[in-house]
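Input:
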Amino acid sequence: MRARVTIMLKPGVLDPQGEAVRHALASLGFQGVEAVRQGKVIEIDLAEEDRAAAQAAVEAMCQRLLANTVIETWRIEFPD
Amino acid sequence: MRARVTIMLKPGVLDPQGEAVRHALASLGFQGVEAVRQGKVIEIDLAEEDRAAAQAAVEAMCQRLLANTVIETWRIEFPD
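Output:
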């Protein structure tokens, strides 16, 4: 089954990448862009078919590798 | 209103970042990870309140700045 992990910086953590995008959009003439935050999304195809087991495995992957637990939050979804 | 843009490499485009994550997960002992694709997510807070106008604006932002139209696809959502 496929898991989708969305990882964003925690609120309050400076996001220079998002800020750069906001500036670039303004430079291109896009009006009314108030804030931009950039994060990453990781799609993982798992052999595991049990939803609860997959959720636990992906949670462990986030804690150990995918996210920086100090400055990032994550959300795990199963789109199918 | 807030728009969320998810940008992924098109199917068939080599994803070395995702491949590196897959290897790292295997090295850490995570079993049954068949494939990993990594993309980015951009959350944009817009002054625009009309959904259709916001959709059109964000579509233009993707075409002009946010995505590489040759190798990437994107999905625009309005989570609220």
